[in-house]
Amino acid sequence: PPTGSGPSSPAGGPGTGASPSAPGPSTPAGFRRYEAPEGFSVALPEDWRRLDTSRVPGGAYRVVFGASGDPRTLAVTYSRRAGDDPVAVWRDDVEPGLERSGGYRRIGAIRATTYRGREAADMEWLARGDGARVRTFGRGFLLGGGRSFSLRWTTPAGDWDDSANERALAAFLGTFREGTA
């Protein structure tokens, strides 16, 4: 299972207020660093942009990235109300909502890990997305004080083991910075 900053298996556009910046030493070839107005940053494939942002009262949000014609997405979710056990957050807070969605099935156990020295947990699942079977790898990690992030990488289930998908997930996990959220 994925640990640290890279996976062992796979699992900014105009008007967003974000500033894409030139590749730095930790930005892989074919990717660019995206600086979100919310304070986090992550390397994205060069043709990707911010597709959607949803916010709820209390400061929580989800930002979804992708590209036109590309069924893969990365969702970055921030919360100010997470519990103190990242495995329990996936199991008790996230999974019940997924179970209500079409075709949900968790793959394996929710795995405790660390990410950038923080308590974290990984969960993988299958679901239906726009009529197609998709597979998602999620890594949630705690910042303290109830604050947390999750990174959710979703691809068509049949393409999960594609080397480009493995490379993208490794880039997201290796370059994500939470900033000052």
Tell me, what is the CATH class?
Alpha Beta
**Corresponding CATH architecture:** 3-Layer(aba) Sandwich
Major β-sheet, in short? 7 strands, antiparallel
Strand order of the largest sheet: 4-5-6-10-9-8-7
Radius of gyration: 15 Å
Domain tally? 1
What do the pLDDT scores average to? 86
Total DSSP helices: 2
Keywords: Kinase, Serine/threonine-protein kinase, Transferase
Organism: Streptomyces coelicoflavus
GO molecular function: protein serine/threonine kinase activity
Protein name: Serine/threonine protein kinase
Question: Would you mind describing this structure in some detail?
Answer:
The chain is mainly β and 181 residues long. It has one domain (19-175): Protein Transport Mog1p, Chain A, CATH 3.40.1000. 15% of the residues lie in helices and 46% in strands. The chain contains two helices and ten strands. The radius of gyration is 15 Å and the shape is globular. Residues 1-34 are annotated as: Disordered. It comes from Streptomyces coelicoflavus. Residues 1-21 have a biased composition (Low complexity).
Task: Provide a brief overview of the structure.
This protein is mainly beta and 181 residues long. The chain has helices spanning 86-99, 163-175, and strands at residues 19-21, 31-35, 41-45, 49-55, 61-67, 70-79, 105-115, 118-129, 132-144, 147-156.
